[in-house]
Amino acid sequence: MKLAIDGMGGDHAPRSVVEGVLLALEEFPNLEVKLYGHKDKLAQFLTSHNRIEVVHCEEVIEGEDDPARSIRRKKDSSMTRMLEAVSEGTADACLSAGNTGALMAGGLLKVGRIEGVARPALATTLPTIDGQGFLMLDLGANADAKPEHLLQYALMGNIYAKKVRGIEKPRIGLLNIGSEEKKGNDLTKSVFSLLQESDLNFVGNVEARDLLDNVADVVVTDGFTGNMVLKSIEGTASAMMAMLKEAFMASGKTKIGALLMKSELKKLKGKLDYSEHGGAALFGLGAPVIKAHGSSNARAIYSAIRQATIMAEHNVTAVIKTTIAESNSLQGEKKEEN
């Protein structure tokens, strides 16, 4: 198993990336890494390792760079060359904590879509109260979507939940403004019908307020809505932890209470910690492309590597390709009948 990794992407790169890679190599004995970036900067944190190949790159795609233009113009950037390794077949999967837009644009330009996939989707696992988590997509790859796009998101999410998360029969939910069948706009009503007619374990509409209660294993929506929900969940979790900290630091008594509850608070923080769930995967591309959080620490990079490794080992891309082809054929037959 060989992964291509952008060593220069992210707020804490290259240190967090290198440290995450070293953690992953300890865990996965069959893993080999092609680490892309400036060799001198990587060398500051890199110990000698026979399963790491450093590929020197002179350029870095920065957070403020134009996504598509930077991929085309910065040909010797760590992200561009990482994506090329996947497209050329010298790596099985890749990941970066760098510019999200550039990674999505580069994924389309360099790696390419699976035949039959109308639009790739950005997906990640979000926390739930019981600690199980749920997969949500699309989280911003496409602001607009058609009903058939959301059906494909559900199919791809179902495969990921089975192969990577080990859920035998994933529950598929459709994000909506109410749980009733007739709720929503034209898009959600049409998607509801498509999911109901599919072979998926569709549990119906789910509301945003219930997402953290583990109402579904996979939740599908359009990218515009999904991105807003994602940012709302992240912001609420961050604000809640900040308010708890302020409350516990208010007086001597509350500080004593905080010490008594230290282990419980640590568990609560762990439930909300994105680093345990890996990164966001770009579903629908010709190989696994993982976007780690921009503020990823070493643990988060390790989790994203674990995610990419599992996707590659279980041939998630190949299964998606077969499933999408079968679904498109079935949809075509239905249209002919009508």
From TrEMBL:
<protein>
    <recommendedName>
        <fullName>Phosphate acyltransferase</fullName>
        <ecNumber>2.3.1.274</ecNumber>
    </recommendedName>
</protein>
<comment type="pathway">
    <text>Lipid metabolism; phospholipid metabolism.</text>
</comment>
<dbReference type="GO" id="GO:0005737">
    <property type="term" value="C:cytoplasm"/>
</dbReference>
<dbReference type="InterPro" id="IPR012281">
    <property type="entry name" value="Phospholipid_synth_PlsX-like"/>
</dbReference>
<keyword id="KW-0808">Transferase</keyword>
<dbReference type="GO" id="GO:0043811">
    <property type="term" value="F:phosphate:acyl-[acyl carrier protein] acyltransferase activity"/>
</dbReference>
<keyword id="KW-0444">Lipid biosynthesis</keyword>
<keyword id="KW-0443">Lipid metabolism</keyword>
<dbReference type="GO" id="GO:0008654">
    <property type="term" value="P:phospholipid biosynthetic process"/>
</dbReference>
<keyword id="KW-1208">Phospholipid metabolism</keyword>
<keyword id="KW-0594">Phospholipid biosynthesis</keyword>
<keyword id="KW-0963">Cytoplasm</keyword>
<dbReference type="Pfam" id="PF02504">
    <property type="entry name" value="FA_synthesis"/>
</dbReference>
<comment type="similarity">
    <text>Belongs to the PlsX family.</text>
</comment>
<comment type="subunit">
    <text>Homodimer. Probably interacts with PlsY.</text>
</comment>
<dbReference type="InterPro" id="IPR003664">
    <property type="entry name" value="FA_synthesis"/>
</dbReference>
<keyword id="KW-0012">Acyltransferase</keyword>
<comment type="function">
    <text>Catalyzes the reversible formation of acyl-phosphate (acyl-PO(4)) from acyl-[acyl-carrier-protein] (acyl-ACP). This enzyme utilizes acyl-ACP as fatty acyl donor, but not acyl-CoA.</text>
</comment>
<dbReference type="GO" id="GO:0006633">
    <property type="term" value="P:fatty acid biosynthetic process"/>
</dbReference>
